[in-house]
Structures are given as C-alpha cells and as structure tokens.
Predict the structure of Gluconate utilization system GNT-I transcriptional repressor.
Amino acid sequence: MTQTQPTMHDVAAKAGVSQMTVSRVMRGTGYISDRVRAKVMTAAAEIGYVHNRLAGGIATYDNPLVAVVVPTLGNRVFTEVLEGISAALDGQGIRPVFGVSDYDPENEARVVLDLLSWRPRGLILSGLEHSDALRQLVAKTGVRSVEVMDTDGDPIQTCVGFSQARAGHDMARHLLDKGYRRIAYIASQNSQDLRAAKRLHAFAETVTQAGAQIIAQRIAAEGSSMALGRRLTAEVMASDAPQAIYYSNDDLAAGGLMHCLANGLRVPQDVALAGFNGLSFLQALPQQITTTLSPRRQIGETAAQLLLSAEPAPDTHVDLGTQLVRGETT
Amino acid sequence: MTQTQPTMHDVAAKAGVSQMTVSRVMRGTGYISDRVRAKVMTAAAEIGYVHNRLAGGIATYDNPLVAVVVPTLGNRVFTEVLEGISAALDGQGIRPVFGVSDYDPENEARVVLDLLSWRPRGLILSGLEHSDALRQLVAKTGVRSVEVMDTDGDPIQTCVGFSQARAGHDMARHLLDKGYRRIAYIASQNSQDLRAAKRLHAFAETVTQAGAQIIAQRIAAEGSSMALGRRLTAEVMASDAPQAIYYSNDDLAAGGLMHCLANGLRVPQDVALAGFNGLSFLQALPQQITTTLSPRRQIGETAAQLLLSAEPAPDTHVDLGTQLVRGETT
DNA sequence: TCTGTATGTGTTTACGTAAACACAAGTCAA
DNA sequence: TTGACTTGTGTTTACGTAAACACATACAGA
C-alpha cells in the first residue's frame, strides 16, 4: 500500500526508542528489557514492519541462506534430498534458494553464478562432475560447498553420499550369486546422469569378470518413469530374452514388473528384476522388487549440517552407504 | 580465501574504470562500449567477483526473488507445481526461495514472515485457507501474492488452480452414472489437507443427493503412499465391501489396485477404484485407473507469470480446470 | 559551421541494517 | 562506601550497490 516500506526507524519512532534497540529486539541479541521488547514488538506489528535481511546481510557479510542446485525436480530422489536439506535448515532459521541444472554442466555453472549473487552461507551441488568454470568459481569466491549423492571421485571441498560404483558392484555380485548370466541394463537420461553411468560401469565390470555378460543395453533419452520402464522391458524381452534386468531406477524396474504382470511372465523365473534407490512405493507393489536403498533424506540432512558446521573441514568424504534390499524379483 | 570479498570497486580499479561502469556492465544497462565491457568482464573473472544482489536490492527496493511455500515436498503434486514455478522464473532470471509449512497454518505464517524478510517480488502460497495473522501480514506489507491449487473461496489477492468441489462432484457423478451406490472414501492426512476435504464434501453431497451413500470413510493421519492405500483398501474391503472406492490421491488408489491384484479381486467388477491427480505413473499400471487430471505444472507456471505481470490484477481467479480420466477401474 | 541527438563514462548520494563504541543505572560483595 | 560487574539503551559509521545527475565525445542533418 505505502510506497516506501517501513524501516526500523519508523518502528523506533513509534515505540519511542532508537533504531539500534529495534535491531536488537528483532535479532534477539544483547540485553533488552521486557518492557521495551514488548513496546517494539507491538509497534512493529502495528506498522507491519518485517525485518529486512538484505540490509542486514550487507551490514554483516553473513546471511542465513543456502544455495541448492539439483539436476531436476522430476526425480523423487532429488526432492527427497531437498526435504532433508529443508528439514535440517529449518531448525537453524536458514532458507534454501534453489536452482535446477537440467543435467547440464553449463547450465549448472550459470545457475551457481546467479545463486552466489545472494551471498549464501554455502552451496549444495549434485554429483562430483562439474564444469571447470564452476570449479574455478567456487575456488575463487571461497564459498563452502558440499556435493551430494556421489563419493566416487574428488569433491571440490566436501561430499556426502555413497559409492555409486560399489552399489553397482554389489548388485552385480547379487545377481551373479543367484546364477543369472545373461543380463540386460535399462536406463533413462543416461548420457547426462553420470552417477548411473558409474554404477553401470562397476556393474558391467563385475559381471564380465565373472564370465557372465551384459547382453543388451537400452538407454532412453527421456526422463525416468514407470511407463518408460514398461516399454523398454517389452523391447528387451522381445529381442534379447535376458535372465535378469538391472534398471538404473526403481521407476523403470516397477514398470518392468508391470510388463511382466500384464504379460504373464513369472518373476524371477522367467526374468529377474533389480532396481535402484529403494523408493518407498515399491513396498506396495505385488512383488517386492530387489533394489539398492540409498539414504537420500539423510544425505540432504547431513549435507546441510556439514555446510553449517563451525569448522569447514575440507576434503571430507562422508559415505553413508547403501543397503541391498533382497526382494522377491531376483 | 580472502577475508573480504571483492567489490565493484576492486573490479573497477583493476579494469581502470569507475565503479558505476562496472555496475552497468553487470546489469547490462546503459550504454557501454564493447571495449570497456570486455575489460570489465575479464577483470571480474580474474578477481573472482560475483555481482552482489543484496546490496543491489537494498539500493533499488527490488530484487529478483519469489517466495514459495508448500505444505510438503513429499507429495509429487507440490514438487510438480514447484517445477512449473521454477521453469517460469528461470526465463526471467528470478530465483525461488522456499519454505515448507507441514500443513500447519501457524507454521505457514512463521515461514512467510521469514521469507518476507528477503523482500521478494511476490509470494506463492498453497490453498486458500490461512491464519488471520498471515492474511494480515500480507495485507499490511502489501506483497503481491498468488494462491495455488484451489479456487473454491476468497483468495487474499489472486488464485490459480481449479475447483476442488467441482472435481469431487464430477467424480461422484461419474461413479453414480456407472451405477455404483455403496461407496467408500479413503484419504490420508486429511485433517490438514483442506483441499481433499473440499473434494470429499462435494463428492458426498452429490452421492447422497442421488440416493446412494458413503458407507465407509478411512482417513489416515500419515502421509499418502501406495502402501497406505493398499492397507486401507484391505481394511475397507474386509469390513464394508463397497462397490466403489474414491481415494483422495492416486498413490492411495494405486495401492488399492495392488491389493486387488494381489488378492484376486476383479476391478471394477468386484470393486471400482477412482483416484485423484492424474499422476503419470498410473499409465504404467496393469490397469488404467480412473482419476481426475489436475494441471499442476501449468498451475505453477501460471502463478509465477501472474505474480510477475506488470499490472497486479487483484481478485483474479484463474480456473485451469480438471479433466476426468475414464480408466479401466470404474 | 552549428545544433541536436546518440553514445559512453564519472561523481555524489541514499538505501536499511548491524558493529563498535559509549554511557547510564542498578546490584552486590568487600 | 566503593568499585566491579551486569543490564539496558543510544550514537556514529560502514557495508556494496544503483539512481540521479553531470559531462564528455561523435556524428548526422540543416
């Protein structure tokens, strides 16, 4: 309504105190008598004054903001990481500002540059692979950063996640132990999803070293979904008849199960299925799908805590591990 | 690394121009020769300078930020709205700052107060029901706001969504037309989810006016999931044997379908199922579930655009409508 | 040649807050 | 009664940027 928003001076005038006293009341610092605090609070409420953190930030060099960049909001994995981050920050009165990179390193660098213009306390990135420009930017500006989801490689400073390679290796071992030799791999958006690529690499290595083989590989350009998994499974079953299928994602695996259900294929007798992530919706499916449980929410929480911890602790790798869930589909 | 971060003055000194020229280059305004622009850009890159929007914001009263509050990040519906918002803002160089209310009005008011301290261009809220404190806060500060997902009621200023009541009514009509008379309702977290409550209200009204009845109602306190839907469906089928079940959510409906699949119940002969939202994963299920498609992403996009449009246009209701998807389960 | 306009750059100042410092009044033990 | 400490409040100043204004230079058209 009013053209110029009210300031601490307005509140101070109304409450009959100095601007500095209002500042102290707003931040809850210093010694303030209950009488003055109450006067200031009611004055602020009447005027409709809201603390201005922009001005505060410029005065203190420090503002309660954390920048978060995820590849997409369309994958539940990242929204769960976001949930963890949000929960951890909430307790500390810190807000996340976020950006989406669309799995594109150039885009990511642009988004980070923009986010840094808000002078956040820290930066949370997804994965360990970034453009040189981004790495240099982080180094030059000296922002604290934490990279989430992946620990196979060198973080800029700190990373929290799990070994994608080990997860792939473990699943390969599991399938081999069960006796499957002719194995197919189904993934989505793989060209950009380097974490899935790492899993596949380790998976394939373990499989071939054991004398078994990856007889087919379907990598779709579109985003992950049950529908895609169902379609690709139909294709692979028709052309390659694998004994087992490893999916880059539970969505895809669930789609595969749906294909089997709808076409009278017995799982795992006719084909075994294994997913990745351990999304909770799997529990409601007719058969429990074998998958790898990743601690996504915990990764988000840990990343936020690490970022805000007193001592920077550079070069820290936090591996929260994964858990192989032996379901009924292998 | 350096204790004090570089400023425009540092860049200006390095480039041999004035601070104001650097400012113009950073913002791309005014007349700047290519030679000077290049000098400034390289100087900034070498020093590692990043534009400081906090200082800019305090100088201009205007900063490219939009505050977004959602009830939860655990429901795909809201992350899809977020996707739409993020996409619409991206093109305009504006960032979302967000908060989670956990379906609690008091919490929501607190979060909004905090978000307003960043002096955003506008505020995006979920639903039309808010605490008085929040309404007053928005009124007093004069922030532009848009409420999303619901159009049944009075928005503070503007709302974008669809009529929850009409969605409930339409589904009731559909089930009645198909001849179902004994109908059960299954929901989650309903006490706080007022939009689901509105759908139920209109649904129940239409059902009872037609002489049919809601013979059972299961409303769980926990969050929506397929597993919950499966469990509640088992309960309802055992105790009430309804002809049709209306779920507050596709997750729950899919869980219901899983229960039927796993227990040899024919759908819709033994029981009909209807969900809500039209989530994409339904397409991969063995049977296409009847549901109501809500334009979630479009709601997010429209809300963001409306918020940033030149003229405030108060009291605007934008009803993007819903679409009843006639599946194979009714 | 003169005038007006487009182009390009600099100087001064204000934005709203918080740190640093100053100071006054009250409390309490020696 | 003194001095030290706790409690409570005010004054001055700096933070980094952008608006407003001022001032050049180049060039076209009369």
Summary: The CA atoms of residues 5 and 173 of chain B lie 64 Å apart.
